[in-house]
Amino acid sequence: MKKTALLLLIALVLGWTGCSSDSTVEVKNLRLEMKENPLGINVAQPRFSWQIASGKPDLKQTAYQIQVAASPEQLESGDGLLWDSGVIRSDESVLVPYAGKALESGKPYYWRVKLATNQGDTPWSNAGSWSMALLDDSEWKATWIGEDSLSNPGEEIGVAGGNNKTRLAARYLRKEFAADKAVKRAVLYISGLGSYEAYLNGKKVSEDVFAPMPSLYYKRIYYNVYDVTGLMAPDKNTLGVILGNGRFFSMRNPGMKTFGLPRLLAQLQIEYADGSQATVVSDASWKITSKGPIVANNEFDGEEYDARLEMEGWNANGFDDGAWKTPDVMEAPAGKLTAQQNPNIRVQETLKPVAIFERPDGKYILDMGQNMVGWLSVDLKGKKDKPVSMTFAELLQKDGSLYLANLRKALVTDIYTPAKDGDFSWQPRFVYHGFRYVEVSGLDYKPELSAFAGHVIYDEMATTGCFETSDPLVNQIHKNSYWGIRGNYRGMPTDCPQRDERLGWLGDRATGAYGEAFIFNNAQLYNKWLQDIEDSMSPEGSISDVSPNYWTIYADDVTWPSAFFYVADMLYRQFGDDSAIRAHYPAMKRWMAHMEEATMKDYIMTKDQYGDWCMPPESQELIHSKDPSRKTDGAILSTTVYYDLLNKMVGFARICGQDADVSGYESLAAKMKAAYNAKFFNKETAEYGNNTVTANILSLRLGLVPEGYEGKVFSNIVKKTEGDFNGHVSTGVLGIQHLMRGLTEYGRVDMAYKILTNETYPSWGYMIKNGATTIWELWNGDTADPAMNSANHVMLLGDLLIWYYEDLAGIKCAPDAVGFKRLVMEPVFPDGLDEVSASYGSVYGEIKSAWTKKNGDFSWDITLPGNTTAIVRIPKEYNVTVGNLPGVRKVSATEGYMEIEIGSGSYHFGK
């Protein structure tokens, strides 16, 4: 039987006629590995995703067919396909794995999908595309090149006992080459350490900045892939690259790792129209100089640019590079050369300043109106040889000058030296700052606001969440969170963006990552970070508290490393992607065993490094509390979290097909629970330890409280909060991860809402009342020692954003589902809040929820994307009547609720 006849027979058996399509059903947003038309995929079985939409409600996919080909023509004709899935009867539309012929290194591929649905069949979708990375190290013909010297003008290297300061000029590299035939395809594979900016014939190959992503360079080196076909010129061409220091070369702060001098690896693969090929590689035939205008660059200190050293046309054909050097062949970094799968950083928004005022010393203070992360571009008038300096800060002192004490040793100053009198335009390339205010000096006039622009940078990703309510304070907290989160994405989730740290602290993201994933599609960033965490593990199996471990901190605590597990779980729950769990399960298992051996005694985890970090101290001048009654026993923190990780590992083991591990984890968890309660639980008072809110809420939410005592333990949380803390938060970074959801789950949404809307210390509202436009590191960040009072941290958000979207808006994935395939929509309605409107762009499409309760009236508008369903629960007190609405599958009553099952579409309930 011929293949086409066989497929038709299969289609008929499955109920797919293939003879008609419903134009109202649309296939959209094709993704491969969650990316649109990606380049440089490095997995043998990439995964396909798509979304479906219709003008009619209750849209369900019933079957799909995927085709893959090596060219658009083959895809269109159906001849020579690399994979034809055939008709697969399934509603699966997220991360469907490729199962065709082996994919070849560096090659482009094309794919399409068509669907059967309960509303008709679709035609073939438009084609998506991707290309493969270089899959074998032997395919790299390029060598690492650079300048193996520290003797260039403008360079200053701190030594032991010296100034701990790094100034190193950028390296400029160029290579002219011929391409004397018609070019069909040209692809650049490139890694420039620490950061690079690449040009072809004078034009940037990409808008990416700080590429490639930071890593533990002796374990892993990332390279990027760019299609540069459109930049190729007939005959003569020039590749140009600037190398900045990034995180590779000596990051100046004592204790931070340095990996060596900047270096470049580049390979341009050219396919000609006649079928022949050519390769241009980095080698000793290139030219290099360190005498260009970027005389120093350091992410913490700033960038210095001397316009007198500009080299016009250096990255284009015909430039005279006779004074440039032959590059040194540099030692290849020890790390595994890896195609970077997550997008690089880009400028995502541009802000205009809101004010400028002159200081008594003749300097000017610029106010951006928002604490932001990025850099400043300027259009100014300067004097020849007279530097113009820009120093960045988040805050001002009372006299209007910059507050720099909380930046510690970071110099945060960019300097531009004009080559002549008159106008100049400039922005840095290899630095970023966390700032709201900029002190500008070296000008002899007051510039206009229009002369400045603030460029907001973070990892390229979609904003997926929107949240607005009737309460301006609630809205501002969400806005501050939004600015703080994206300001701390720098190829890794960082603690802060402004001082001499900017590191991937694990404890900051253990639960916060879940909430962040509502606002941003951060899956690729967090997938990359999990690899950083595994790469940074010690041979003994210890997880570094900072990853990549630019600081070496192996504390063998539990709470900070737990992020390794929680983030992997988040990727599965939020995005339906279990690949991180599968990839890192062996490392997780190794860490669990290491911790059991290293710190467990009588089933109690005995070691804790940080406590309930940054809980509000009794005096607002303190960073950490000195009052024992406020501090939670470290063994309580470590044991509760390790117990939760044991339960996570049960689920992970089943996902990975490691069922033999399940009984061991379950048995150990049972023994820990018994030992924990014997040691820390007072049955008479229902208190854990010294009865802190953190001790009690961790025990409650992580499932350690003996059956029947849950209400009593919760009562202690309420009494402590109301009595000792006057309805305010009393937790640090660990307790806050469970506070808002814990209060709500046990019936005290009123208390959660009070904590949310407090404007007195300690609270998020207190931060805003005192001028914050991001989230502070400390509840008392305005009064504490500047050694640790960053104005842009996100760790104190805890579970707040999860609570916003899941509990206030009701956008919550069902417990037995992942990726929001099924939802349970059951919002809470605190007194004082009249409206909530939220949306979330899930892997299936946009989910919307908007409710109003005012003057006795209630209404709720819901939108679900195609191929999803929801259980909607509305309190009976709102007297909502559900008519015969299209898409409503079932209506039933439970105690206190009307329960409505709906399919995709838009719905209005209430008046």
UniProtKB/TrEMBL annotation:
Domain Alpha-L-rhamnosidase C-terminal per the UniProt entry, residue ranges: 810-881
Keywords: Hydrolase, Signal
PROSITE patterns registered for this protein in UniProt: PROKAR_LIPOPROTEIN
Annotated Alpha-L-rhamnosidase concanavalin-like domain residues: 359-457
Record-annotated Alpha-L-rhamnosidase six-hairpin glycosidase domain positions: 463-807
GO MF, one example: hydrolase activity
Recorded coiled-coil stretches: none
EC top class, as a word: hydrolase
Pfam entry (one): Bac_rhamnosid_C
EC number, as in UniProt: 3.2.1.40
Signal peptide span: 1-21
Catalysed reactions listed for this entry: Hydrolysis of terminal non-reducing alpha-L-rhamnose residues in alpha-L-rhamnosides
Domain Bacterial alpha-L-rhamnosidase N-terminal: 181-349
Name this polypeptide is given: alpha-L-rhamnosidase
Organism of origin: Parabacteroides hominis
Species lineage: Bacteria, Pseudomonadati, Bacteroidota, Bacteroidia, Bacteroidales
